[in-house]
Amino acid sequence: MPFAPGVLERPALEVAPLLLGAVLTRGVISVRITEVEAYLGETDPGSHAFRGRTPRTVTMYGPPGHLYAYFSYGMHVCANIVCSPEGTASAVLLRAGEIVAGLDEARSRRLTSKTDADLARGPARLTKALGIELGDDGADLNRAPFDLELPARLAAWATGPRTGVSGLGGGVDYPWRFWVPGEASVSPYRRHVAKRAG
DNA sequence: ACGATGATAATCT
DNA sequence: GATTATCATCGTT
């Protein structure tokens, strides 16, 4: 069953914890999301949309429940789920997850990973394992080959500063990284931090 | 387990 | 021309 319309039509900070435990499918591969980051848009110094609408960020201003995929560091693709109403730039970056279907296919896409926990540990690894490419930017997550299943109940979560964000937006004033405590697919140095909410 | 480093190109100023 | 929401590899503890 796909997610209910309107659930994602809220600011990224509210949507982010809802996505922990969600299962995203592309084709034969499914991943259970264990780590995300919220990007609030024009008021957020860490967001691509901080300086307003540009050709790259048009998808972020689009309707919620679509994929915002962008090209990073000259060789990687990262995936966000667009949230907040159309016209507002807000999205949640998918940072890590656990492969729950299509394991063999995911392994063949990620030949450098030594263990299954490494398959989707990291935003660019996650997109590579799922097979998400730049051409998927703007895709509706309720339409094939995609599917998004939100969790029935909220998981326990921890928060902390965002990773890889330089300047103001990466500091402790923006603790907008959310993860499931103890998950093998989360970056190890903060995997067990116990500040939890909910 | 952790830190440093090179790879590599779209996007924005 | 600078910057970048990263990864894999290789070095040192």
Q: Overview of this structure, please?
A:
With 198 residues, the protein is of the alpha+beta class. The chain has a single domain, classed as Roll (3-methyladenine DNA Glycosylase, Chain A), CATH 3.10.300. It has helices at residues 12-19, 103-109, 123-130, and strands at residues 23-26, 29-39, 67-72, 76-82, 91-101, 146-149, 157-160, 177-179, 196-197. Strands 1, 2, 3, 4, 5, 6, 7, 8 and 9 form a 9-stranded antiparallel beta sheet that branches. Strand 3 (67-72) and strand 4 form a beta hairpin. The longest helix has 8 residues, at 12-19. The model is unreliable at 191-198 (pLDDT under 50). The structure holds a DNA duplex (13 and 13 nucleotides).
What distinguishing features does this structure have?
single chain; 198 residues; alpha+beta; 3-methyladenine DNA Glycosylase, Chain A; 9 strands; 12% helix; globular; disordered C terminus; DNA-binding
> What portion of residues belong to β-strands?
25-35%
If you average the pLDDT, what whole number results?
91
Number of strands: 9
Please state the structural category.
Answer: alpha+beta
| Helix/strand order, N-terminal first | HEEEEEHHEEEE
Major beta sheet summary: 9 strands, antiparallel
Enzyme class: hydrolase
InterPro entries: Formyl_transferase-like_C_sf, MPG, MPG_sf
Organism: Cryobacterium luteum
Pfam family, one: Pur_DNA_glyco
